[in-house]
Amino acid sequence: MVADTPHMARVHVDSWRQTYRGLMSDSVLDDPELLPARERFWTGVLTDERHSSNRVAVAEVDGAVIGIAMSGPSQDPDATWGWQLFLLYVDAAHHGSGAGAALLNTVLHAHEAAAVWVADPNPRAQAFYGKHGFTPDGHSKAGPDVRERRFVRGPGTA
């Protein structure tokens, strides 16, 4: 799967640009180093032992990567759940195709309680996670690039 890192990085960057324009700084989204940085990120995720417990999946159509997802053990200090969805992106041309749900179900199992931080506002993503049993828990955070709300799901609610 390491051979897929350039394609995974491309989906990651394109999805950020499609989704976060107006929420995230143009200087971040248009940075010429964004794509190489995401390639290094994905290479590290797929090769570094520190990420060995993470689950990574790609969605493909006709051999082309159109979606990516990654989950792993929760990193939230107040977590009462075991897993966290770190990212799930599907190219906008494939929204509504079922690729997002397939990715979600591949990296998070229905019996696992989990959380995900979702850009706010991002009504499309928030509706997607709501459809899959996640509800906002009232926690939010504002990073240097985007504000996020946390959504959680209990076991068996997928």
From TrEMBL:
GO molecular function terms listed in the Swiss-Prot or TrEMBL record: acyltransferase activity, transferring groups other than amino-acyl groups
Domain of life, source organism: Bacteria
Keyword Transferase: yes
Cleaved signal peptide residues: none
Stored CDD domains: NAT_SF
Descriptive protein name: N-acetyltransferase
InterPro entries: Acyl_CoA_acyltransferase, Bact_Acetyltransf, GNAT_dom
Domain N-acetyltransferase: from-to ranges: 1-153
UniProt KW keywords: Acyltransferase, Transferase
Coiled-coil blocks: none
PROSITE patterns xrefs: GNAT (PS51186)
